[in-house]
Amino acid sequence: MKTPAGPADDAREQIKQSFIAERGYWRPWTETMLQVCPAFVQQYARYAGYPARTGPLTERMVELIYVALDSSSSHLFEPGLHTHMKRALEAGATQADIFDVLHLVAVQGVASVCQATDILAEFTDLSAMASVDEALQIRIDRLGPEHALALTSVARLDPGYAEMLLDFVEQGRPGDGLTPAERSLVQLALHACFTAFNPQAIRQIVATALSQELTPAELLQAIQLGAHLAVHGTALGTNVFRQVQGFG
I need a labelling partner for 225 at 20 to 30 A (CA). Which of 36, 66, 84, 195 fits? Predict the structure, then answer.
C-alpha cells in the first residue's frame, strides 16, 4: 500500500516529536496514523495535551488521574496504565498515592449500587424496617458525601452491608496517600468519564470538592482528562487496519 500524499518526511518527524512531547508515548498505531492521516496525529496531540499544558493541576495529579481512568473497570487499558503509572512515579507520586487511587477505583462502582437501591426503596414498604442506627448514620454522614455514596436506603434494607462498605471505604486505603481534595479530583474524573458517566455522583463530588476549596478550574481539568480515553478506540481500529492491509 502506498503512503498517501501529505507532509514530507521531515514534517512527519516534527509531528511525531510534538506528539511524544505532549502525550509521552509513541506506539504502532500512532506510526500508522502518521503515515495515513498526519493531521489526526498533529491535532489530537494539541487537543489531548491542552488540559495538562494549560490547567492548574500538577503533573503528578494529572498522571494519577490517568492511572485511575485507565485502571477503572469501565476501561481497563493496560498500555496507558503502564505509561501513566510510570510518569506519575517520575513526577513524585508515592506508592501510597498509587494504591490510594486504586482503592478509589474499587469504590467507584458502589455509587451505582446506592442509586439502584434508592430506586428499589421506592417500590418497597420500609415501614416495618427499623430506622438507621444512630452510630451508623453518623458514619454515613461523615463518609458518604465525599465518596458519592447515598447510603440511607442501603442502610435501611441491609445495615450489615452498609457497615462493611464503610469499613472498606475508611480502612481499605493506605495510611498515607492522597489528601481529601486530591481524592475528590480522582473520583470526579472517574464519575465524569464517558465510560462510566454518573451525573448524580458528579453532583455529590463537585459539592464536596468545592467545600474543600478546590477551584472550578481544577475540577474542570479533572473532567476534561477523561475525554482522551476515546482515542483508545481509534488505536484499536488503526491497529486492525494495519493488520488487514499489511501496512507498516
Answer: 36
Taking CA atoms, 76 is separated from 69, 91, 230, in Å, by 8, 22, 13
Measuring CA to CA, which residue among 23, 19, 48, 73 is closest to residue 221? 48
CA distance 220 to 194: 15
Q: Is the CB of residue 52 less than 8 Å from the CB of residue 228? A: no
* Residues 112-155: tens digit of each pLDDT: 999 999 999 999 998 888 899 999 999 999 999 989 999 999 99
Q: Assign residue 100 a region (left: φ > 0; alpha: ψ between -120 and 50; beta: otherwise).
A: alpha
Report the range of poorest mean pLDDT among 65-74, 94-103, 129-138.
129-138
107 contacts 147 by C-beta, under 8 angstroms:
yes
Judge whether 200 and 119 are in contact, CB under 8 Å: no
DSSP of 156-200: HH-HHHHHHHHHHHHHSS-SS---HHHHHHHHHHHHHSGGG--HH
CA distance 40 to 33: 7
Contacting residues for 99 by C-beta, under 8 A, at least 6 apart: 173, 174, 177
**Residue among 224, 212, 194, 195 nearest 145 (CA):** 212
Per-residue cell: 99: 494504591
Span 62-86, average pLDDT: 96
pTM metric for this prediction? 0.92
Q: For residues 217 and 209, is the Cβ–Cβ distance under 8 A?
A: no
Q: What three-state secondary structure class fits 96?
A: helix
